[in-house]
Amino acid sequence: MAILGSSYWNLIDVLKAGGDGLGDVVEALTQLTPFMKDANVVACNSGTEHRSTIRTGLPSVSWGALYQGIAQSKGNYTEVKDTTGFVEGLSSVDERLLNLKPAEAAKLRLVEGQGFLESIAQTVDSAIWYSDVKVNGKQFHGLAPRYNSLSNPNVVNAGGVQADNASIWFVTHGDMQTSVIVPDSVPAGVQREDMGRQRVLDGNGNPYYVKEEKFTQHMGLCVKDWRFNGRIANIDVSDVVAGTVALNPLLRKLYYKLQGRRAYHMEREGQVSPGRTVIYMNRMLLEALDAETSNGRSGVDNFVRLTPMEIQGEEVMTWRGIPIRETDALVTNEALVA
Hints:
Elements: H1 11-18, H2 23-32, H3 34-38, E1 41-43, E2 49-57, E3 76-94, H4 95-100, H5 105-130, E4 155-157, E5 165-173, E6 178-182, E7 190-201, E8 207-223, E9 230-236, H6 237-242, H7 247-255, E10 276-281, H8 283-294, E11 307-311, E12 314-319, E13 322-326
Parallel strand pairs: 1-6, 4-9, 10-13
Antiparallel strand pairs: 2-3, 3-8, 5-9, 5-10, 6-8, 7-8, 11-12, 12-13
Helix pairs in contact: 1-2, 2-5
């Protein structure tokens, strides 16, 4: 059974519980950023950074015998530091425009603010997948730079050799797997601050007055256990359009590489949450997968069929019971992963 938000604390729950009146803003962002619908959100444990201790080696054990001692051993660990960044925008609406329809002033400001919300959503959604702190230190480290080599066991090569490639992702959200991180002193989600009446200058240096709103979102990503995520890379877009790429075998190959691949089906009382796995792909690939699994209803191709499920009033397609999220932040011109 696919579970999205019904059993897990997510970003919308955090903000609604906070009672800060930002529910509508965050709802708008999650509609634009599919990843946020599933995200497990945790506060940074070191200011704007989050430090995770990861086991890199198991302690050794041995068979015992009477009157013999026990060999001493210990596990090996390493510390990983993930950072956060923030995106912001400033909405300014001419006060004279608002005075023309005072009863609609709040709505007019929200309409203007929607553009900033969408821009933040697109920027954040792209950063989740492609942001690289080695390229831009203002940003946080996304997923693609972490899974950027075919030597990674959880990266499946789809065989593309050109520069028009796309990827499909399996991401497991949970405290022990992948989390969205926010600074410990900053609330999660988009912060909307009314800056009030401000005096500004036009292009000629002449003053006028506006009503300003500032929109800000702080966030980063922490991948505590890389084995629970995976990437199908080098999916040749032109071959997908031509119908010469079979996506189901690629999905199946990555599925059996994932740690705890059946974890999203179960959670027993008293156990640590195993997380929840979600598949992400762009619209073109989802359409191709849907077409691929809709042919031959006699079952002669033995493909796993996509199954639509209604989750919190939304129809979500699933593959082997794993929810699929469509996101156009996953582009069709990715560089070749070698």
